[in-house]
Specification:
single chain, alpha+beta, six-stranded mixed sheet, four-stranded antiparallel sheet, elongated
Length: 274
C-alpha cells in the first residue's frame, strides 16, 4: 500500500474527505465517462463524492471518506502515481488560511487570532474551526480555502484550533466601489416647472438617496429611482449635475459601479424620451 493511500485512509477514518493529487498539486484528469462533465456531475458539486462513476472526476468534489472507493480498482492506480494527498476543508467544517510567503505570515500574526498552524513549502496554513466561502488572493499571498476547494495535506499541525473569526470571514466580503466624481448629462429643461419651492426638489433628491441606501436589489432600485427622479424633475431644467452626482454617490456606496450608474441614468433618460 502506498504511503499516500495509508495517509488518506487514516484521514478518511477521522471524517476528512480526501483524494489523490498528481505532480504539480493538481487532481487527476477527468475519466472518459465524465470528460467535460458528460455525466452531469457539476450540479452535484455542492456535496463531495456524488459522482456515480466513482472516479476522481471533479477535483474537490471527488474527495471522499469511503474506504471502498479509496482502495477500489478505479482509484488504486492513481494512488500509485500520486504525489500528495488532498483534503476538502469545507467538507469537515474547517477553513484554511493559506499564507504563501513570509510577509503574509507576518501579516497573519499581527492580524488574526492564533490557531493551529501547518508549515508549507513557502509559508503556513492556519486552520480554523468553521466553514466559509473560498476565494484566492484576498490579499497579497493569502488564499482562503474551505468550501468547494481542496488543500494539500501537509500534516496535522501544531497549536489549538480556534473558532473561525469574523476577521477571516471579512476578507472575502466585496467592498463597495469607491465613490467617484461624475459628470452626467442632465436635461436642459424647457418644460413648465412644477416645483412650488426649491425645498420640493431637495426633498425629492433626499428621498431618492434614502431609497437607494435602503435597497436590497440595488441594480433594479437604482434604475427605478433614476427613472422616478428624471420623470419628476428632469424636464424643467431644475435638476443639476450636483443632484445627479448625489444619486450616483448613493448608488456607489451600495456597491454599484460608476459604469452601471451611467448606464442606468442613460437608460432612464432614453425611456423618458430625453
Amino acid at each position: 500500500m502506498s504511503p499516500h493511500l495509508t495517509t488518506a485512509l487514516d484521514l478518511a477514518a477521522r471524517g476528512v474527505p480526501v483524494m489523490p493529487l498528481r505532480v504539480g498539486k493538481v487532481p487527476f484528469g477527468n475519466c472518459s465517462a465524465c470528460r467535460d462533465n458528460a455525466c452531469g456531475g457539476r450540479p452535484n458539486m455542492k456535496t463531495p463524492g456524488l459522482c456515480t462513476c466513482r472516479r476522481p472526476c471533479h477535483a474537490w468534489a471527488a474527495a471522499t471518506t469511503n474506504p471502498a472507493t479509496l482502495t477500489g480498482p478505479a482509484w488504486a492506480p492513481l494512488w500509485r502515481q500520486a504525489a500528495a494527498v488532498a483534503w476538502h476543508p469545507g467538507g469537515t467544517g474547517l477553513t484554511v488560511v493559506d499564507l504563501d510567503h513570509a510577509d503574509a505570515v507576518a501579516w497573519a500574526r499581527r492580524t488574526l487570532p492564533a490557531t493551529r498552524t501547518v508549515p508549507t513549502t513557502r509559508g503556513e496554513h492556519w486552520i480554523y474551526q468553521g466553514a466559509m466561502g473560498s476565494v484566492n488572493a484576498v490579499r497579497d499571498g493569502v488564499d482562503i480555502k474551505s468550501t468547494m476547494v481542496y488543500a494539500r495535506w501537509l500534516g496535522p499541525g501544531t497549536g489549538t484550533m480556534t473558532t473561525l473569526p469574523d476577521t477571516v470571514r471579512a476578507l472575502i466580503v466585496k467592498q463597495p466601489s469607491p465613490v467617484r466624481p461624475v459628470t452626467v448629462p442632465v436635461p436642459t429643461g424647457g418644460g413648465e416647472c412644477r416645483h412650488r419651492t426649491p425645498a420640493y426638489l431637495e426633498r425629492g433628491i433626499a428621498m431618492a438617496e434614502q431609497r437607494i441606501t435602503a435597497a436590497t436589489s440595488v441594480h433594479t432600485t437604482v434604475y427605478r429611482t433614476f427613472l422616478a427622479v428624471l420623470s419628476a424633475h428632469g424636464r424643467c431644467g431644475c435638476l443639476t449635475e450636483s443632484h445627479a452626482a448625489r444619486l450616483f454617490a448613493a448608488a456607489q456606496t451600495k456597491g454599484e459601479s460608476p459604469r452601471h450608474c451611467t448606464d442606468a441614468w442613460s437608460n432612464a433618460r432614453t425611456a423618458l424620451g430625453m
